[in-house]
Amino acid sequence: MKKTLILLFSFLFIFASTFPVKASEIQSINSTNIIEIFDDGSYIESSTEENIVATLSRSSSTKSAKRTYTYKTSSGKILWTITVTGTFTYNGSSSSCTKASVSTTCPSITFKLASKSATKHNSTATATASFKQYNDSVYLRTITRSVSISCDKSGKLKGIY
Fold first, then answer.
1. DSSP string of the chain, one letter each residue
2. Prediction pTM value
């Protein structure tokens, strides 16, 4: 009987240790930088938001983060935004991007979204979007920007300019 109980508890211990242990850690880390200024005074601002709901298991962790480029007029009015959202896994010896998505907004009537895409490669999520600018239905220019975010093996995020 004693051997059976020890064997049963051993199996339960091994079985329980193979299931992921999940813990939610919510952090909000925000940083904003102006990364490009145009001749007319308009500018592109970069912001990184790490609203982490990290899933921790015995072997690896998962986190999600977003990085946004916002194009603004010289007075601060938003013309368009592009956001990359990446989901990453890391374990202390390696990291990878498991999902990348793109979202855009274009509240200005002078800009129209021409295209958008998202890619993932190794530990980096990248979103690319092109916006066409018009003045009274006359095409002026196209602005294409890519925004990337990566995660290192310890879970530290890095924005790539």
1. -HHHHHHHHHHHHHHHHHSPP----EEEEEEEEEEEE-TTS-EEEEEEEEEEEPEE-SS-EEEEEEEEEEEE-TT--EEEEEEEEEEEEE-SS-EEEEEEEEEEE---TTEEEEEEEEEEETTEEEEEEEEEEEETTEEEEEEEEEEEEEE-TTS-EEEE-
2. 0.77
